[in-house]
Q: What sequence folds into this?
């Protein structure tokens, strides 16, 4: 009896689901476990999440940017995608846009450092079933993954309020922050990194763009927000809880 070939993983190998141990007994993951694709642009954070999840889920693939995420989801058809909101290549909304109509039974749980209403509503409107922040504990994250995999929507009370207001017509994405809405997706990515204290070369490396492109985006952000320095930008972003 031969085992099925391993599922492709754009980051690293994942053991085949039907691998057989000595004597023909199954040595693979429990088929009842939620199958998860973990998407975050920081490898060390992914490793930490894997450790926190332990054996409660089966991580079938990892990805670090939009292209890798689309490839991993397509290749593995997981139960749940644990998806960082801000990714190189366009962010979570770009992943969801490109996978529109191709997700099947796969559900998406957004995981982010941001609890900004603009981020929450945009990702939910794009198709995510839930949104939690990176302050969540390991057991809470396992429970959220299971609930999303079962078809439930999962939010903290504060984030749920944003979604209810938006879908009740009381809040429009563009009305949450008119200044922020002037920025493109890439300008928002650059703005957040600069506001967190990243140097231009670090932003360039993080987003896989040139330093000159970073400088151009920063100039555009400062102009659109009518700010004069990166220090003012940091205060502006902090006041809106974007960092």
A:
């Amino acid at each position: 009896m031969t085992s099925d070939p391993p599922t492709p993983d754009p980051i690293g190998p994942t053991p085949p689901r039907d691998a057989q141990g000595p004597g023909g007994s199954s040595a693979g993951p429990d088929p009842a476990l939620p199958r998860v694709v973990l998407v975050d642009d920081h490898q060390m954070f992914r490793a930490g999440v894997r450790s926190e999840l332990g054996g409660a889920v089966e991580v079938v693939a990892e990805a670090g940017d939009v292209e890798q995420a689309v490839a991993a989801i397509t290749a593995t058809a997981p139960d749940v995608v644990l998806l960082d909101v801000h990714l190189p290549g366009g962010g979570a909304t770009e992943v969801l846009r490109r996978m529109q109509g191709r997700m099947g039974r796969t559900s998406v749980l957004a995981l982010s450092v941001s609890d900004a209403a603009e981020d929450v509503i945009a990702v939910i409107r794009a198709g995510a079933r839930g949104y939690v922040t990176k302050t969540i504990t390991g057991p809470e994250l396992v429970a959220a993954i299971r609930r999303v995999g079962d078809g439930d929507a999962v939010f903290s009370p504060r984030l749920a309020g944003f979604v209810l207001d938006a879908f009740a017509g009381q809040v429009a994405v563009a009305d949450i922050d008119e200044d922020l809405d002037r920025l493109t997706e890439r300008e928002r990515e650059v703005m957040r990194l600069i506001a967190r204290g990243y140097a231009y070369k670090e932003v360039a490396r993080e987003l896989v763009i040139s330093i000159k492109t970073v400088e151009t985006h920063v100039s555009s952000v400062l102009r659109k927000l009518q700010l004069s320095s990166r220090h003012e930008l940091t205060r502006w972003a902090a006041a809106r809880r974007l960092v």
